[in-house]
Amino acid sequence: MSKKLCLCLGTVLCLSGCANLAPLYSRPDAPVPDAWPEGPALQEDVAQTGKIAAGIGWQEFFLDPRLQQVIGLALENNRDLRVATLNIERTQAQYRISRAELLPRVDATADHSSQRQPEDLTSNGQGETSHQYRVGLGVSSYELDLFGRVRNLRDQALEQYLATEQTRRAVRISLVAEVAVSYLNLAADRERLQLARQTLETQQASFRLIQRRFELGASSELDLRQAQTRLDAARVDIARYTTLVAQDENVLNLLSGAPIPDELLPQILTEAPGPVQDIRPGLDSGVLLDRPDVLGAEYQLRGANANIGAARAAFFPRITLTGSVGLASDELAGLFNSGSGAWVFAPKFTVPIFDAGRNQANLRVAEVDRDLAVARYEKTIQTAFREVADALAQRTTIDGQLAAQQSLTGATEASYRLSQARYEKGIDSYLIVLDSQRALYGAQLELIGTRLIRLLNLVTLYKVLGGGAAG
Q: What is the CA radius of gyration of the chain?
């Protein structure tokens, strides 16, 4: 009988999973143009220079050795990345559970039971005690997946796992970009602080000079008070940039998950040895389909598609099997004697007849979830396209803006020197000198800011194009 049971189980296992009611999956068309935007802010050389971002690892893109070490610390210690990694392990375990449902669970069992019948329930009027010993192998409630319900649930769990892996990749890229942005912001704020301190020294020297001239009657009190206002303004800027530098360092420490050694922190932005290299977006917007967030949204869509198949299968009969084969005896010593074999085969056939619309509602929920996943997928692509287009628009104008700002700063510096010389010769008032100082200081700050914007634009472009996603 045990051979017949094994043959029966083998036959039904072969029948399992012979149908799949999930809709045929087809990737939705990307709801964005094939080509990148064109216009005055987007030149043709955007697609002709530099390397494609998606093919560059972060170690190749960020060329500053100190920045590379800081990013390495963040990838090792950052808690957000650790949470994303643990989520992958969790969903991987859930997928293994779903996959295990495709095969029967076989357990080895051994049990003993004793039962005493009272005297008034026995045929001979005497109390009796009976014993039963059993050992065997059993299959408990194994569902034959004739209509793909279990298999589609397995597929849905697999897609969820793959989506979680893409989430981790997206977190990794975002973390690398955030560290780089914070590092460059710190360098820029330290350079602004250094400029403010240099300006303070200049203003202190000017104030002392004006004060002596005022005491000698060569300058008016107005000149003295105007010099003092510039001196106090420089002190305010020093306090402000000192705070910003401390906050930038706190952000870097948070991202890296540990305090960063001082020797790894940047001093000023202009001394950074080539922190980033130039990149290009690729020939068309199809590169967006390789972004981790877009891939993750597609995996979510595929999972929702598989879930429809599981919901459809609920309308069809379900067959579950329970069976065991082994040995049984009323005495432990006779458990392995000839003739002690025992088996149980108990298939269960369930046909849905009336469920008050539960299955239909579950199917509708699955279909709506699929439609929602399509909308999220399309919105993710549209957002990605907009992010890249914005970064490209800024990139094609930032070099011209930087060149103009450098020229402006040089001209303002020359104007300041001339106004200082004319004041010392008594040709112009000190107000003109103050205006020139203020213009020069503002132009120098703008130059630092423009340099920072150019570098941040490259980092943003690298991030939104999915750069280093495979790393």
A: 38
Instruction: Please tell me the predicted confidence (pLDDT) of residue 1.
Output: 43
DSSP for residue 337: S
Q: Give the chain's length.
A: 471
Distance CA 311, CA 220 (A): 89
Nearest partner of 342 among 141, 130, 139, 134, judged by Cα: 134
Nearest to 104 by CA among 137, 67, 141: 141
d(CA 195, CA 430): 22
**What is the band of 2 on the pLDDT scale with cuts at 50, 70, 90?**
very low
- Facing residues of 132 across strands? 113
Amino acid found at 386: R
Q: Give yes or no for a contact between 405 and 454, defined as CB atoms under 8 angstroms apart.
A: no
Q: Which of the pair, 266 or 37, is modelled with greater confidence?
A: 266
CA distances from 416 to 202, 372, 462 (A): 12, 62, 40
pLDDT in tens, 51-76: 566 667 888 888 888 999 999 999 89
| Tokens found for residue 180 | 């780089």
Cα distance between residue 340 and residue 325, in whole Å = 11
Higher pLDDT, 238 or 139: 238
Average pLDDT over residues 371-397: 90
- Two tokens at 220? 């008016």
Is the confidence at residue 206, as pLDDT, over 70?
yes
What is the residue-averaged pLDDT of the chain? 82
Instruction: Tell me the DSSP string of 135-186.
Output: EEEEEEEEEE-TTSHHHHHHHHHHHHHHHHHHHHHHHHHHHHHHHHHHHHHH
Domains and CATH numbers, the chain: 2-112+129-464 (1.20.1600.10)
Q: Token digits for 137?
A: 């192998």
User: What is d(CA 141, CA 439) in angstroms, rounded to the nearest whole number?
Assistant: 82
Q: For position 306, what pLDDT does the model report?
A: 92
pLDDT in tens, 415-464: 989 988 887 777 877 778 778 888 999 999 999 999 999 999 989 988 88
Cβ-based neighbour number of residue 419 at 10 Å: 23
The pLDDT, as a whole number, for residue 286 is: 76
Closest CA to 421 of 436, 443, 439, 442: 436
Bridge partners (DSSP) of residue 327 are: 135, 341
C-beta atoms surrounding 290 within 10 Å: 14
Q: Give the N- to C-terminal CA distance of the chain in Å, as an integer.
A: 57
pLDDT at 47: 45
How far apart (Å, rounded) are the C-alpha atoms in residues 7 and 17? 18
